Amino acid sequence: MQKLVSLDDIELNVSAADWQDAVIKSGTILLNNGYVTREYVNAMVQTVKNLGPYIVVAPGLAMPHARSTNGVIKSGISIMTLSQPVEFGNESNDPVYLLIGLAGSNDDLHLKIMQAIATIFEDDRMLERITACDRREMVARIFNDVEVEE
What we know:
alpha/beta; Mannitol-specific EII, Chain A; kinase; PTS_EIIA_type-2_dom; Ascorbate-PTS_EIIA_comp
C-alpha cells in the first residue's frame, strides 16, 4: 500500500482570484513536488477552457487534471482548500471550496487514484470535514487512511 499524499502535497486556505488561478495554484503544488512539468499545469487550465467545468465532480469539489502526455513525471495528487470559494460555471456543483489536482503517469494508476479518492467522498460530510481542517496533518490522515494499489 502506498500513501496517497504527503504534507507537501497539501495547502490550506489558499486565496484564489478565480477558477483559473485556483487550478494554476493546485497544479503548482504538483509542479513544486516533482510530479509534473510546467506544461502540465498549463494543460490543466486549457482542459477546462476546452471541455468546460466537468472537473467540478461534486458540490464544492473540483479535480483538475490533464493528459499524462502533457508532462506527468510521476503520479501524485495535490489537495488545496480555498479561503473563499470560486465559481467554475458548473451550475449544479459550484462554488468550489476544495481542489484535488491529479497527475497520473498512466491510465491504470490514474484510475486507481480516482477510485481511492471516490472512496473518501462516499461520506457526504467529507468535504465539510476537509475544508474545516486547519492543519495539513489532519487532511493527510483522511487521505492516507484509504488504500491505493500499486
